[in-house]
Amino acid sequence: MAEKKRPLLGFVGKLPSGTTAGNSGKTHCPLCMGLFKAPRLLPCLHTVCTTCLEQLEPFSVVDIGGGESDTSSEGSIFQKLKPRALQPPIGILCPVCDAQVDLPMGGVKALTIDHLAMNDVMLESLRGEGQGLVCDLCSDREVEKRCQTCKANLCHFCCQAHRRQKKTTYHTMVDLKDLKGYSQIGKPILCPAHPAEELRLFCELCDQPVCRDCVVGEHREHPCDFTSNVIHKHGDSVRELLRGTQPHVEALEEALAQIKGTNSALQERVKAVAADIRTFSEGYIKAIEEHRDKLLKQLEDIRVQKENSLQLQKAQLEQLLADMRTGVEFTEHLLTSGSDLEILITKGVVVERLTKLNKVEYSAHPGVSEKITFSPKEKAGLCRGYEVYGAINTKEVDPAKCVLQGEDLHRAREKQPASFIVLCKDATGESMGRGGDNVQVTVIPKDKKDSPVKTMVHDNKDGTYYVSYTPKEPGTYTVLVCVKEQHVQGSPFTVTVRKRHRSHPGVFHCCTFCSSGGQKTARCACGGTMPGGYLGCGHGHKGHPGRPHWSCCGKFTEKSECTWAGGQSAPRSLLRTVAL
Question: In what residue span(s) does the B box-type domain sit (predicted)?
């Protein structure tokens, strides 16, 4: 089947419209860029000079499946069919499209000759667009005429000799300048097996052109006919195949156009997004720089404020120290050098001064702390519409000022979550207003000090910390709350864990008669009864409490813990009622 496709594909080369003989893509080799010399047609329908193909580096072809490759060459249309197993696995790559070309037994010279390209080269040469043609007989002189009968290009000397021969005397000779308007002046295609014979017949069985000697030789008894008689049938089959191929060309061109359009849209979109990114990043950078400048200014203000406070405290302490030294030195000198009368005379002034100095209050510690921290992950609000991070903190948590809050500080239930809040404050008692402090909570059972309860500490980022834990058993627990490894106010403290909350097995009703649907045997923990043998309570009757209550324990609060003991020991063996 591969051999049958070869001449059809070669015929397709004549069909495209809009091509000219002067087209360099049809007359010039893609490798040497010169006019074709013995051009060979590859299975991918690209044409390359024979010598250029022979210079390509061959490689071994590995056929894993054992079948024919899609891009394998069928060889020359004149090559005798050979078994696939006898062909050497040698191939080359098309220099135009990199398609794999499996070489036939005869190598590069066994590939199909592109006669159409040879005709285009000849036409281009005739039109002065290529190199001058040389005589087909002597191969030395330039061509002047062409024999239309022999289809040979002849120089002046060979043309005269051609006319003197009796066999060619009446052949039609035409000047080359008169052939420039022709589109087909190719040489006769000779049989490779019989070089003296022209290929004019076509063997249907072998699907290849043959000459007269081939018909009486190896193609004897094969169905053969003149090429002019079979071209219509084979041309129609090629045209039919072409009609099936052309929609794919259109579809591929449309797909490529869509890809090109999508690529253009992609480039435009990338440019737009890149512009957005640059705008965003430039704005963000400006916001960060502005926030940086604000932080640095804030830091400088804090420095000035703290320095002023320290300088003021320093000046006050230095003045107080000078006053103290003056008083001490004068008094010591008075006591050591003064007479009794002098001491008594100045005693009043000295005592008053020393008493006043001793009453002066001062702090032995710096009035401000050097504590300044930067929290890069702390949100700092919006700047130029962008959310920025990073804040300067001068507050320092004081464990002695931290307090505990919550209803579950000193009570809890077994297997039920208990929680409380740790509120961190600074030395002035002001809330820290931020998170990040090291808060540690430990809950230890009194009887099992080596088995602490697992605790969870959640930083609310506002100076408060949510602490939760779940005691497994009832009993007394000790809770330790430390900040910066120091106990806070009220730590440690004890928590009494009671048994799990008991739900009510009865119903919360107005009376037994209503909740039971008038059953006489239904009872209530309130102890009320009704005439007529009713064991439960009823509105306005003896023992009714006058308000809604639980039938199981008699409690008046709907959301409460049940105190019914259950069993036969319960008062009057109370029956649970069912709500209608």
Answer: 130-176, 186-222
Interatomic CA distance for residues 543 and 576, integer angstroms? 18
Own/partner pairs, 251-259, CB within 8 angstroms, 24+ separation = none
- Burial of 570: CB neighbours in 10 Å, binned 0-12, 13-18, 19+: middle
- Give the residue numbers spanning the domain of 489: 395-498
The type of residue at 380 is A
Q: Is 58 inside any structural domain?
A: no
Residue 48 to residues 20, 29, 422: CA-CA distances in angstroms? 19, 5, 88
Same domain flag for 406 and 336: no
Residue 194 corresponds to which tokens in the numbers above?
A: 């019989």
- Has residue 46 been placed in a domain? no
CB within 8 Å of 511: residues ≥ 6 apart: 524, 528, 536, 537, 538, 539, 544
In whole angstroms, how far apart are CA 84 and each of 5, 41, 66, 72? 17, 21, 10, 11
DSSP output for 442-458: EEEESS-TTSPBPEEEE
Is residue 320 domain-resident? yes
CA–CA distance, 515 with 497 (Å, rounded to integer)? 35
DSSP line for 14-72? T--SS--TT-HHHHB-TTT-SB-SSEEE-TTS-EEEHHHHHTSPPEE---TTSS--TT-
Going residue by residue through the chain (580 aa), what tens digit of pLDDT does each one get?
333 333 333 333 333 333 333 345 578 888 888 888 888 888 888 999 988 988 888 887 664 444 444 444 444 444 444 454 554 568 889 988 888 888 888 788 888 888 888 777 777 766 654 455 678 788 788 778 888 777 777 888 888 888 888 888 888 788 776 665 555 555 677 888 888 788 889 998 888 899 988 988 888 889 998 888 888 888 888 888 888 888 988 899 999 999 999 999 999 999 999 999 999 999 999 999 999 999 999 999 989 988 998 999 999 999 999 999 999 999 999 999 989 898 999 999 999 999 999 998 888 888 777 888 888 888 888 998 999 999 888 888 889 899 999 887 888 888 889 999 999 998 888 888 888 888 999 999 988 878 889 999 999 988 999 999 999 888 899 999 999 889 999 889 999 888 877 778 889 999 998 888 888 888 898 888 898 888 899 988 888 888 899 988 888 888 787 877 764 334 444 444 443 3
> Under DSSP, is residue 440 helix (H, G, I), strand (E, B) or coil?
strand
Q: CA–CA separation, 428 vs 369, rounded Å?
A: 12
Dihedral sign, CA of 432, 433, 437, 441? positive
3-state SS, residue 11: helix
